[in-house]
């Protein structure tokens, strides 16, 4: 395990923010994980666990140690009607999606093209197009950085909630995810009734899609709305969709009848944050080198590659204030904001 000083992180975060880590460690295999624990007392704190860097905004240089997760590998076990797929945390998320599609398994097809690594998905409980990853996680294997042992967390142990889990709350910076096991089905029903999926399938003349056809449609929808972080710095959706109770929902719906929303249960509605931001006039607005994307108001971009983390946060905070003033709703960032 090598410790690198003053590591440039500009190519390790999707915003392409030019920052440096005081110390940097990359974990490529199980031995590296164990070596990290053995040398834990000598690691300069604080630490930040970095996956693909697709959900991280660095505000400033990181004073401490950034630990990059890079272990790879996918394996599966046939279990009658289900297949258990074990994936190392450093594996690219889309590699798992493609593996699942190649085996004609059901479950993850709606989550295609979400940038990042597998180990980040249970932390954030990623979701898209009516599906959340918690529905298919069987267990999570993580390293306890205090005692060096690997612990297995069941699905219920993870305490999943909307875009969160125990690894983002109670156990933040206490465990490093090593591997995630997914339970995928050989037979299932596709989730088609979300967003513009039905319209897209109809335009392609597909009445009864299979998993591959559905994932290809969703991939095309995402590409038409979301900028590629390889080309322009961004972290995808910057804000979470806010949840409101029934009373608040009908109050807003009466004032804004075109408001986009989804009913979760009898007293909970999810409001489309992108609609709130666009309706407030932020779509395409620029503040220096930071801007709201011209096609998707939920995405903040590093327009010319010169924005700092502070620049990104400045426009984000202005949006938060604006949405609070107009709708009396607090927008919570979905990205991890690191630094002062």
- Model regions low in confidence, pLDDT < 50 over at least 5 residues: none
Q: Structural class of the secondary structure composition?
A: alpha+beta
CATH class of the largest domain: Alpha Beta
Based on DSSP secondary structure assignment, what is the total number of beta strands? 20
The total of helices stands at: 8
Our measurement of the CA-to-CA distance between the termini, rounded to an integer number of angstroms, reads 29 Å
Characteristic terms for this protein:
340 residues; alpha+beta; Uridine Diphospho-n-acetylenolpyruvylglucosamine Reductase, domain 2; Uridine Diphospho-n-acetylenolpyruvylglucosamine Reductase, domain 1; 5-stranded antiparallel beta sheet; 4-stranded mixed beta sheet; 29% strand; globular
Describe the structure.
By secondary structure, the chain is of the alpha+beta class. It folds into three domains: 3-69, Uridine Diphospho-n-acetylenolpyruvylglucosamine Reductase, domain 2 (2-Layer Sandwich), CATH 3.30.43.10; 74-185, Uridine Diphospho-n-acetylenolpyruvylglucosamine Reductase, domain 3 (2-Layer Sandwich); 233-338, Uridine Diphospho-n-acetylenolpyruvylglucosamine Reductase, domain 1. It is 24% helix and 29% strand. The protein has eight helices and 20 strands. A five-stranded antiparallel β-sheet has the order 6-7-12-10-11. The longest helix is centred in the C-terminal third of the chain and has 19 residues, at 309-327. It starts with a strand and ends with a strand. The mean pLDDT is 95.
